[in-house]
Amino acid sequence: AQVTLKGGSYHGATGKFNVWNPVTFHPEFSLAQMWVIAGDGADLNTIEAGWMSDGYRSTGCYNLDCPGFVQTSNKIALGMHLNMISQYNGQQFETKITVHKDPTSGNWWLQIQGEDVGYWPSALFKALSSTATAINWGGEITNTNPDGRHTPTQMGSGHFASEGWKKAAFVRNLGYVDESCTIRDPDHDLIPLTTRAECYSVHLGNFDQTYGAHFYYGGPGLSLSCH
Questions:
Q1: Which of 118, 136, 142, 200 could form a disulfide with 1 if both were Cys (CB 3.0 to 4.6 A apart)?
Q2: What is the CB neighbour count within 10 angstroms for residue 210?
Q3: Among this protein's residues, is 115 annotated catalytic?
Q4: What are the percentages of helix, strand and coil residues in the chain, rounded to 5?
């Protein structure tokens, strides 16, 4: 359950991600992140940054488990635990994540809460060696169809987007980085997309001064509406 921005030339992306601890079942995962994307098929490049419950067990390359990402921060480590977790109808916590391309080196930098964590060298990429052509923000889960049914692994808070503030997970203050390294609002160009709306939903909010471009997303997985 995500929103996407495409059709432009993007030098990065940003968003404030509401932090939850959704229920997951081995070997599945549930994540909230943004995707900075260029290319397709065998030439597809993506940079992905966010939070995850459980983790990829057999596919993908995350944190510092493979060569490439250059860590520069001694304050924030990839793969560290997030201890400040939002509560249903209670206190909400979030983390700001930004990925942007350095115009001089061509490297893609990761910032968390304003701290430069490190970078992906430009030499790692083909399609992303220039600019991104799409950005996605939102949630994703794996569904192994246990016992022939949809998984009960949750996305976001485990509640549908329609429940809104303090109940559904959100991503707010979405932005993209333009060629002048300025963060811009994508308030009129976002496209919601979900593969199983009866299991996990997404709802775009109206642009405002505090939350900017934002949306709610998530769901419980297996339920009366999701089989």
A1: 200
A2: 7
A3: no
A4: 5, 40, 50
